[in-house]
Amino acid sequence: MKWVFVIATVFIFALVFYYSVNNEKTRTKKKALSLYRKKRYDKTISLLDAKRALLGEDFYYSLLIEILVETKDIEKMLQACKEALDSKIESSMLYNNISYAYFEAEDFDKSLEYADKCIELNDKFAAPYANKGNCYYLLGDLDKALENFDTALGINKELPAALYGKGICLYIRKDYTECEKYLLKYTKINKKSINTFKMLGDLYFENRDFSSAAKMYESIISVDSTLPWAYYELGNILFYEGDLFRALTSLDKAIDLDKDCYIAYYYKCRIFSLFRHIDEAFQCLEKAVEGEKYLKLIAFEDNFLNNLKIYSRFKDIVGNRKTDIISELQVTSADD
């Protein structure tokens, strides 16, 4: 019976060792992912390098490539992809990350190739379909882009990349009702996407829903309060909403941030024209066209400036005839 005891003891020690190693591996993976989520990329890479043998090549390269994509280190990212492929690892997660890496490097053929390899291993994984959708979107094939985004959302209806991608495709197609639905879902997940708030704001403005448009630009400002264009766009929206005093405040903020924010001066000119503050209106108009000559043509046809057009000063600043203004703009464009 002695040999039975010895074998049993060895087996127990083997199990203890196995679970000990696996527990350490699990703890190390959790630590690496925690560091990654906190954007402590250098420390994550140091941990990956130190524990590479324990973590395994699949996890090592998958997370390393993801970090290099985040940090936009294209050269190191592509080198990591090459090394991972040379190691002959077959992993859906790794192929997906390689696909995304090639997308970031603008090598769309390879991005599509490795997205397909990922799908071959796991066709219930939503991310590679979103990668394909992004590729087809940038290649100008909206039909294929939407097809892949739909497949991704069929697997995971909350996948951010697919919600955003489908929203953009629908925006380009001017399918604003459907577009709004997907972009709003995306903003619930990513509450700091300035581009998404801008698209929604412009969409609402196009539909003359000025209140909703203003809220979107206010959301942009809450994310980043240093953007002059966000303030002058908000000012313009408030102007159309009829909230002229708030519009002026927003336009003044744009100018505080950028003294050469000529479009903000133009929008102020409109408001002063409606208020019949003629001197202030002309001062703003002069400043606007001094920096952006094309505003002369807009001013010439702008009914909001009718209170200024009765004065000879308007013609001095803008011009007498539309054809003359266009000729001036063509000369200016040729000189540039």
Automatic annotation (TrEMBL):
Claim: Repeat is one of the keywords in the record: yes
Q: Which SMART domains match?
A: TPR
The lineage's top-level taxon is Bacteria
Show the Pfam families listed in the entry: TPR_1 (PF00515), TPR_16 (PF13432), TPR_8 (PF13181)
Q: Does the keyword Transmembrane helix apply?
A: yes
Q: Where are the TPR repeats?
A: 92-125, 126-159, 194-227, 228-261
Q: Which UniProt keywords apply?
A: Membrane, Repeat, TPR repeat, Transmembrane, Transmembrane helix
InterPro entries xref list: TPR-like_helical_dom_sf (IPR011990), TPR_rpt (IPR019734), Ycf3/AcsC/BcsC/TPR_MFPF (IPR051685)
Transmembrane segments in this chain: where?
A: 6-21
Q: Which PANTHER family match?
A: CELLULOSE SYNTHASE OPERON PROTEIN C (PTHR44943), TPR REPEAT-CONTAINING PROTEIN MJ0263 (PTHR44943:SF8)
- What name goes with this protein? Uncharacterized protein
- Source organism per UniProt: Clostridium fungisolvens
Per the UniProt record, the lineage of the source organism begins with: Bacteria, Bacillati, Bacillota, Clostridia, Eubacteriales
